Backbone:
């Protein structure tokens, strides 16, 4: 039994020696020469890369990139087009704006360009939806019942942008059949004048120069310096039209002045200072209310107090104005008046006439700009008026 075991052990030992010798022979006869050739080829390319400070490195790298590109173009369709999961990943990566042919119900007679009707639907095609803005101003004929607001909503711009582009057209006079100019985006359409630059235009309309440059349909005489030419049209996205220029002061005293009220004290109860329609409310950039009336009308003291400002002392956008100190921590301001009926230092009772509604200063029509001022800021007049 022991002799048989020894024979088996010797046979196994002899078998492994045979396998070891066979592997060693295979490595020496086949792998070693091939590795030597590989090292030789690699050494050749490395030498070329280092030769003359990398003179050929760009050529070799570009060649490798071309090879990868050719492989991608050749193998890409078979790897992506018919892969549903890849399509889903591609669509998600592009904001779900990819529509695949298998997700669209074909209409009768529909055919993919370049394919027969038999195999057209077998190919997975895809289309990217364009969200490119309009390039130019559009002429639009107003339809029955439309307003600036409804037209602005239809074109995706704000109302002010349409008003700015159609100066002289009053909102109340918009009628069916009238032609309006509609800007491509919310903002201002500007015609370049002599001496203007992209930066001065941006400053005028309170936007960054980059916003004008980024609008894809604005053109420049020099794309590096963004030079602009006299007479060309620029779209200023989100631009704001500056206020109307300040008008010259006029004779602001009324023919009939309101007499001083003598000793007074504020009641703390406020009345409406003018009759008309509220055209602009209290906002972060407009800490007042505007009361408009086409026919003008008398401006009344909202409460009793002493006149501390009467006139147009600084040629500012308020125009002719009256300010009343009510003696209880409150002051009221009445701006854009056409005529003033009080003088500085006199007292007025609540409801006394202090002037006439007008359109002086930075104003586009008859209205009263009314502020209530406190020691800690300005308050919303609508919270105080009865």
Residues:
């Amino acid at each position: 039994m022991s002799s048989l075991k020894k024979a088996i052990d010797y046979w196994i030992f002899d078998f492994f020696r045979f396998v070891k010798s066979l592997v060693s022979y295979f490595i020496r006869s086949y792998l070693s020469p091939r590795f030597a050739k590989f090292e030789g080829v690699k050494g050749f390319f490395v030498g070329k890369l280092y030769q003359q400070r990398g003179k050929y490195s760009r050529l070799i790298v570009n060649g490798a990139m071309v090879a990868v590109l050719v492989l991608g173009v050749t193998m890409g369709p078979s790897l992506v087009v018919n892969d549903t999961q890849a399509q889903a990943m591609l669509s998600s990566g592009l904001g779900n704006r990819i529509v695949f042919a298998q997700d669209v119900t074909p209409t009768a007679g529909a055919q993919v360009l370049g394919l027969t009707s038999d195999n057209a639907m077998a190919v997975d095609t895809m289309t990217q939806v364009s969200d490119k803005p309009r390039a130019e101003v559009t002429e639009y004929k107003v339809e029955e019942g439309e307003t600036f607001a409804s037209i602005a909503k239809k074109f995706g711009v704000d109302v002010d942008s349409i008003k700015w582009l159609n100066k002289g057209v009053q909102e109340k006079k918009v009628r069916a059949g009238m032609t309006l100019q509609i800007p491509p985006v919310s903002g201002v359409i500007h015609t370049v004048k002599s001496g203007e630059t992209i930066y001065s235009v941006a400053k005028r309309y309170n936007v960054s120069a980059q916003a004008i440059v980024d609008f894809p349909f604005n053109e420049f005489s020099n794309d590096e310096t963004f030079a602009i030419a006299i007479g060309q049209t620029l779209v200023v996205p989100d631009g704001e039209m500056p206020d109307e220029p300040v008008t010259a002061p006029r004779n602001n005293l009324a023919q009939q002045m309101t007499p001083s009220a003598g000793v007074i004290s504020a009641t703390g109860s406020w009345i409406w200072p003018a009759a008309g329609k509220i055209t602009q409310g209290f906002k972060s950039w407009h800490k007042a209310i505007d009361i408009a009336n086409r026919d003008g009308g008398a401006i009344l003291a909202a409460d009793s107090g002493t006149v501390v400002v009467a006139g147009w002392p600084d040629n500012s956008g308020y125009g002719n104005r009256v300010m009343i100190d009510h003696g209880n921590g409150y002051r009221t301001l009445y701006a854009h008046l056409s005529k003033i009926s009080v003088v500085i230092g006199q007292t007025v009772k609540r409801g006394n006439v202090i002037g006439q509604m007008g359109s002086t200063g930075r104003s586009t029509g008859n209205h009263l700009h009314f502020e209530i001022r406190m020691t800690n800021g300005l308050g919303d007049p609508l919270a105080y008026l009865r």
Summary: The longest helix spans residues 2-50.
